[in-house]
C-alpha cells in the first residue's frame, strides 16, 4: 500500500510537468494550427487591363476565361512588355458578379486581391526528435473561401510539409526563422509537395 509520502512525491512530480513539455502529435497539431503563417489566407491578385501574353496564358487566367469571368482582345504592348502579343483583359458581367459577391467595393480597380482559400491541417504524420529539436511532418490542403477560391484551389489535393520545432524552458515552439535547414513554418508551406 502506497504511503502518504509516495503519493505526495508522485503528485509533485506530475504537477511539475506541463503538457507543452512533451511534443506529442496533439501539441504539434495545436501549434501548427495556431501559427500565423498557417492561418494566413491565400490571396489571388486578379489583374485586368493590358497584360503580356505570358501573364494572360497563366493557369489562373485560363480558369477565369473558362468560367466566363474574363474576356480578352489583342492589344498593343506597352514598351518593355514581353512577349507579344498583349491582351486587354476585362471582367465580364459574370466576373463582376463573382468579384462583387466577395468584395463589394472592388469596382474600377485594375488589380484586385481576392481572399481565395485557407489551409486546413489534415494530419501530423510524423515527429522526429533529437534532443531539444524536432522535425514535424504534416499534411494539409486548401479549403476554398468562395467561388473563385473553389475554381483556383482544389480541396482534393493534399500537401506534405515539414517544420522545425524547438524546446524552450516553457515548452515546445515552432521555429520562427532558421539560418539553415530545417525549415520555418513559412518555408515549409511554400515548399509543400503534393501527396501522391
Whole-number mean pLDDT: 87
Query: How many E-type strands?
Result: 9
**Helix tally?**
8
Total separate domains: 2
Determine Rg (CA atoms, Å): 24 Å
Shape: elongated
The top level CATH class name of the largest domain: Alpha Beta
Strand content: 35-45%
Poorly predicted ranges = 11-18
Termini separation comes to: 55 Å
CATH level-3 fold name of the largest domain = Nuclear Transport Factor 2, Chain: A
Note the run of SSEs as H and E: HHHEEHHEEHEEHEEHE
The helix fraction, in percent, is 25-40%
Short overview:
This protein is an alpha+beta fold and 196 residues long.
Provide a descriptive summary of the structure in words:
It is a single chain. This protein has helices spanning 4-15, 25-34, 36-39, 53-56, 59-66, 93-102, 147-152, 185-190; strands spanning 42-47, 49-52, 70-75, 86-91, 111-130, 133-144, 158-168, 171-174, 193-194. It starts with a helix and ends with a strand. The strands form 2 sheets. Strands 1, 5, 6, 7, 8 and 9 form a 6-stranded antiparallel sheet that branches. The longest helix has 12 residues, at 4-15. It has 8 helices and 9 strands. The chain has 196 residues and is α+β, with helices and mostly antiparallel strands. Residues 11-18 have low confidence and may be disordered. It folds into 2 domains: 22-41 and 117-194, Nuclear Transport Factor 2, Chain: A, CATH 3.10.450; 49-109, no CATH class.
